[in-house]
Each structure stands twice: as C-alpha cells, then as structure tokens.
Design goal:
The chain has helices spanning 24-39, 58-61, 89-100, 121-126, 141-156, 160-174, 188-193, 255-267, 288-296, 304-309, 312-315, 333-345, and strands at 5-12, 51-55, 80-84, 106-114, 196-198, 201-202, 211-220, 232-241, 278-280, 359-366, 372-379. With 380 residues, the protein is α/β, with parallel strands linked by helices. It has a domain at 5-119 and 209-226: Peroxisomal Thiolase, Chain A, domain 1 (3-Layer(aba) Sandwich), CATH 3.40.47. The chain has a nine-stranded mixed β-sheet with strand order 3-2-4-7-1-8-11-10-9. A two-stranded antiparallel sheet has the order 5-6. Strand 5 and strand 6 (201-202) form a beta hairpin. It is globular, with a radius of gyration of 19 Å. 54% of the residues are buried. The mean pLDDT is 94.
C-alpha cells in the first residue's frame, strides 16, 4: 500500500517587483536556511535528504541550464536532483509520488523565478508558441488570456465590471497577506481606468511581474514526528494537458482542469467540491477565477458571473491569499497556492485565517490560457 505523504515545513521570501539586490541563489538560500531552522533536517546519506526537486525556468532566469547554479545552494550536491520547468505544483506531485512509492522518505522542494531578469516577460512567453505560425504573430500569454477572456465573457455573461470587482476583492484579501506583491487597495474605477493591454483585459486585470522563492520539506508518515507536530497531508493529485494550439481548445471551459480535478478527487477518496473548505485557484487574469471555478465543478458551467455577483468566492473561501492577481511569478503560482493552503490548514495564516478548515484545494497552471493544469488536495 502506498505511504501517506505530508508537508512538514515551508518557507518563502516576500514577492517583490525586482529583487535587484540579490541573485536567485541568495533568494533560495533564505528559504533553505529557514527550513533547516524549522526542522533540523540533515543531508546524511542514510537518514537525511537524498532527493531534491527544483522548480525554475531558464528563460526567466535569462541563462541556460540555470538550475545548475542551484544545486549546491539547495543541498543537491551528490544527491538526486530533478528539475520541474512547468508550474511548481507539479514538483509537489513528483515529490509526493517519490515518497509514496518508497523511493524516498524525505524530499526537499525548492523553487524560484525572477521575472525581472528579462527585458520583457511577454517576450519570454512568446517563445512558448510554435515558431512558424503563431510566434511571428506576436502571441504571448497575455494575448492568449485576452482571447480567452473574450470567449468566456461571451458565454458566461461576465462584464468588465465583474473583472474590476474581482481585482478589488483580490487586493482586499492581499492586504492581509504580508508576503503578497500588491497589497494596496484599489477601487473599481481605478481598475477600469488602467490601460487596455489585451482586449478586453486592462493592466490591473493581469498579474504583475514578480520575483519570488519558496521551499518545502515533504516526508513519509513514518518519520513525520521527527520534523513537525503539525503535518499537512497530501491526499490527492491530478494533472492534465490540453492542446498546444488555442484554436483546438474550448477557451471558455477547461477540460484539462476538469480532468485534473477529477483525478485528484478520486485519489483523495472520491470527494467532490462540497468536501473542500478552501480553494486556492491560480488566477493570472481576472476572468480566470470564475472560469477555473466552473471547470473544477465548484460552479455550474456558464454561471460564473452570477456566482461572482452573489458572493460565491467569499462564501466558498476562494483565494484568501489574494491569488496570483496580486503577484506570484508565472512558474510558481501553484506553489504559492499550496503554501497558502498549508498555512491555513495549520492555523498560521494570521489575519486572513479561516477557522475550522479540514481540507483545501491548490491549483496550478502552465502554458497559454491554461494549457496544463495540476490540482492538489491537502488535509490536516
């Protein structure tokens, strides 16, 4: 029988616009040292960490094979080191599987992304498109989100007023999160007055460029007591990839997210959205919170606008962290969602703490307009 897996500890630095004063190795070192202080973990070959999962992206680091510069900093020298270049939540899934299989007792997960390194994050994401047809058109993740937003608004009845209200709520939630990138409150009028960047999306409808680093220690059930008395259990995981080409997808509903969530729900014991107390959805753009909520089954398909109007996000405890709209780097949005769920389930979320939580869902996505999705179920 597969072993149970828990997150024993987590560490992060504050999300910032440009951590110009520190290389990514220094960002990671802060998280690494915090994890050592919290748990006393060692790198003994027999009983310590023998496998490390790193999450990063060469393009955003503005150098090739950038994870080579991480190895010594995160203790991966003479150990197994696997790199995850999709959303970091997939790194958690990989570490979870490694422990469940019996291959490892402990796995250290470390991630970083410095979107400030490149001249333009949009130029970076343009490289994700095929070089013959769509890349020369100038498509990037922002433009893809604009196309998706227009398709979803046509189907769901979502309006620009709804988008502005989503941003206002996100900033209000982020004001209680000391690690958020954007914490100043805004009005709906300020959001609607921000520049149009990819019709129908305005500047404040899209997440801000961000630098960040994070670390987590995962452990098998038999050894959890060595590192913490407040483990958070990982009970379900699912991932799914959609078509590479936007024209081959239904942009107004994510079948990939629907399938990923179903797999996670099944692994967690056949649960559904009614069994989940808190949702952290990876909303890079304002229209995506309700779109993703529809796709996981939290909201009926096409009913996202009504759900927003009737206070659905507050009623179902969605994105209490403020979400990605307030700033997490592209490659680590899912890890930020998992970190919020971890803190909430341990009762360590400060002013934004939700009482009585037993189970949470964390979501991560990679690729243009949510091409790939991962869903993680967490329990205390």
């Amino acid at each position: 029988m597969a072993r149970r897996v828990a997150i024993c500890a987590a560490a992060q630095i504050r999300n910032e616009a440009d951590i110009w004063y520190q290389r990514f190795q220094g960002m990671l070192l802060e998280c690494f040292e915090s994890l050592v202080d919290q748990t006393g973990l060692t790198f003994d070959m027999d009983t310590g960490v023998r496998s490390v999962v790193t999450c990063s992206d060469d393009v955003f680091d503005a150098r090739t094979i950038s994870d080579n510069g991480m190895t010594d900093v995160v203790g991966a020298h003479y150990r197994g080191e696997e790199k995850m270049a999709q959303d970091g939540l997939n790194g958690l899934g990989y570490a979870m599987a490694s422990i469940m299989s019996g291959h490892d007792d402990l796995v250290l997960l470390m991630g970083h992304c410095k979107e400030s390194q490149s001249e333009s994050r949009h130029m970076c994401t343009n490289l994700a498109f095929d070089p013959f047809f769509t890349r020369p058109l100038g498509l990037d993740y922002l433009n893809a989100c604009g196309l998706q937003a227009r398709a979803y608004m046509a189907r769901s009845g979502l309006t620009e007023d709804h988008l502005s209200d989503v941003v206002v709520r996100a900033r209000r939630q982020a004001a209680q999160n000391p690690f958020a990138r954007k914490t100043s409150r805004v009005t709906a009028q300020e959001v609607s007055a921000s520049p149009l960047v990819s019709d129908p999306l305005r500047a404040l409808h899209y997440y801000p460029a961000t630098d960040w680093a994070v670390g987590m220690l995962l452990c098998c059930e038999e050894r959890v007591h060595e590192f913490t008395d407040k483990p958070v259990w990982l009970t379900g995981f699912g991932s799914c990839m959609d078509s590479f080409y936007l024209g081959e997808r239904d942009l107004a509903f994510s079948v990939a997210l629907q399938q990923a969530s179903r797999r996670a729900f099944k692994m967690a014991g056949g649960i559904d959205t009614g069994d989940i107390d808190l949702f952290e959805l990876n909303d890079a753009a304002a229209h995506q919170m309700s779109l993703w909520a529809e796709s996981i089954g939290l909201v009926a398909a096409g009913d996202g606008a009504h759900w927003l109007e009737t206070g659905g996000p507050d009623r179902r405890q969605v994105n209490r962290s403020g979400g990605m709209l307030n700033g997490n780097p592209l490659m680590l949005g899912g890890l930020a969602r998992a970190l919020e769920a971890f803190q909430q389930l341990r009762g360590e979320a400060g002013d934004r703490q939700v009482d009585g939580l037993q189970r949470a869902l964390a979501h991560g996505t990679t690729g243009p307009a949510g091409q790939h999705h991962a869903v993680l179920i967490m329990e205390n």
